C-alpha cells in the first residue's frame, strides 16, 4: 500500500532506482521491528515516509564514507563544460573544496539540523514537503532551517 510512496521518497534522495529499492527494503525492515510503537494507525503513511527519508539519508552518508559519489547529469554536465578552460578548473576545485568544508561542518550539526538542511539544500524540497517527510509542522521546519543556517554560518565564519 505504501511502497510506491516510499520508493518515490527514496529515489528523491538516491537518484538511483536500485539504491532506492534497497532503501525501501531497509525501511520496511526497520518499520517491521518497530510496528508495535505505532499508536495511531492513521499516521502509518507519514511514519513510513519518515523512516524512509531517514534510511535514505543514512544510506547516502554510508556511501559518502565509502568514497562513492552518486553522479547524475546535473553534476556531469558542468564538469564537462569546465574541462576546456584552466581557470574554470581552478574555480571548480575551489567550489568543491568549499563544498567539502560545508559537508564536514553540516556533519557536526544536530541530527534535526542536518535533516532539514539536506532536504532543503541538497534535494531542493519545500518546507511543506520536508514537514510531510519528517512528520513535523511547517513552522517547526522553518524554525529548524533558520537555526541550522545560522549555526552553519557561524561555524564556517570561524573556520574561514
From TrEMBL:
| Keywords assigned | DNA-binding, Sigma factor, Transcription, Transcription regulation
Domain RNA polymerase sigma-70 region residue range list: 2-65
In the UniProt record, does the keyword Lipid biosynthesis occur?
no
Annotated signal peptide? none
Q: Where is the RNA polymerase sigma factor 70 region 4 type domain?
A: 100-152
Q: Which InterPro entries match?
A: RNA_pol_sigma-70-like (IPR039425), RNA_pol_sigma-70_dom (IPR014284), RNA_pol_sigma70_ECF_CS (IPR000838), RNA_pol_sigma70_r2 (IPR007627), RNA_pol_sigma70_r4_t2 (IPR013249), RNA_pol_sigma_r2 (IPR013325), RNA_pol_sigma_r3/r4-like (IPR013324), WH-like_DNA-bd_sf (IPR036388)
Read off the SUPFAM superfamilies from this record: Sigma2 domain of RNA polymerase sigma factors, Sigma3 and sigma4 domains of RNA polymerase sigma factors
What family is this? Belongs to the sigma-70 factor family. ECF subfamily.
Q: What is this protein called?
A: RNA polymerase sigma factor
Amino acid at each position: 500500500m505504501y511502497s510506491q510512496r516510499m520508493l518515490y521518497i527514496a529515489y528523491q534522495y538516491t537518484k538511483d532506482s536500485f539504491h532506492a529499492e534497497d532503501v525501501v527494503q531497509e525501511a520496511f525492515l526497520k518499520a517491521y521491528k518497530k510496528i508495535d510503537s505505532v499508536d495511531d494507525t492513521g499516521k502509518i503513511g507519514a511514519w513510513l515516509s519518515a523512516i524512509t527519508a531517514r534510511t535514505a539519508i543514512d544510506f547516502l552518508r554510508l556511501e559518502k564514507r565509502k568514497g562513492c559519489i552518486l553522479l547524475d547529469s546535473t553534476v556531469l554536465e558542468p564538469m564537462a563544460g569546465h574541462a576546456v578552460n584552466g581557470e574554470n578548473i581552478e574555480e571548480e576545485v575551489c567550489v568543491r573544496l568549499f563544498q567539502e568544508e560545508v559537508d564536514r561542518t553540516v556533519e557536526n550539526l544536530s541530527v534535526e539540523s542536518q535533516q532539514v538542511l539536506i532536504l532543503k539544500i541538497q534535494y531542493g524540497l519545500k518546507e511543506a514537503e520536508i514537514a510531510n517527510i519528517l512528520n513535523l509542522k511547517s513552522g517547526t521546519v522553518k524554525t529548524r532551517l533558520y537555526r541550522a543556517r545560522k549555526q552553519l554560518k557561524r561555524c564556517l565564519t570561524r573556520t574561514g
